[in-house]
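[Automated response] Your request has been received and processed.

Submitted sequence:
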Amino acid sequence: MKKLIALAIAGGALVACSSNKAPVEAPVASAPVVAPASAPVVSNHNAVYFAFNKYDVQDQYAGVVKANADYLAANAQAKVQVQGNTDDIGSVEYNLSLGQKRADAVKKALIASGASKAQIEATSNGKLHPKYDNNTSEARAMNRRADVIYTTDQPKGYSTDANGLPMVDGSVYNGTVTEGVE
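Generated structure:
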């Protein structure tokens, strides 16, 4: 009888300690996350990509930030809008806030690299205007970004692609941008 009671107590303790809920990740800046080796790379997106639920500008995007900051510093009339975007996981309100934090982080990085605060507007699209369908983890990763969009005095090598994403050629930035950080 004692063994049966001990077994029942141990079983109850195991059940009480288990949970079906996924852990909630707090939206805080963190150390850079390295993109997986299989992440697609392009040389001309004028954007900064973010890991899930993050808004820190990773070191791998320093080149694209610096190229835009240098152009803005050399062209006082140039202005950009940094649009923060998210994937479709979470509420509209939460994603609008996260998108704004992403846009603000890129704005801060541009200013730290030499651009004027007056040249940069930071806005959020949240999950409201996805460029990719959000049906796969890869597509969701492509939506987690902040786009640097020139509104006046854009560089000669600036354009947008068929999805409306901002692009720059090698005359503006000749490094690579890793898309879709996991």
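Summary generated for your ticket: The beta strands are 41-42, 47-49, 79-85, 120-126, 145-152, 158-160, 166-168, 177-178. The first helix runs from residue 2 to 17.
If you did not submit this request, please reply to this message.
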